[in-house]
């Protein structure tokens, strides 16, 4: 099996763990894998993961409470990668409430677009008053 194909099961597993909607997970895998495959498959994924650095987020954490922007935090409570208390902290720092999606995992925007759109609409309406 070519190296490019050997890494498909790992990629599929990661994306499936991040979705609570199996149909959307399958669609997402189909859309995203081809880009990884085109750019080095596993090497591309590893490069992306290695680029993640919490220092980038921590560097601005103390500035979040001073932001004067409309905000809403929507979080999947079943996210296995980013725990709910991270969302609660972000919401608190931004001075807003945390909207929980009980079945939501990491890819909440893909699995629950209506709930996210409603939150965006709410913030947009409030900001335009």
From TrEMBL:
Keyword Hydrolase: yes
GO molecular function: hydrolase activity
Residue ranges that the Swiss-Prot or TrEMBL entry lists as coiled coil: none
Disordered: region residues: 103-129
Entry keywords, A to Z: Hydrolase
Organism: Saccharopolyspora cebuensis
Protein's recorded name: Alpha/beta fold hydrolase
Hydrolase among keywords: yes
Biased composition (Basic and acidic residues): 103-114
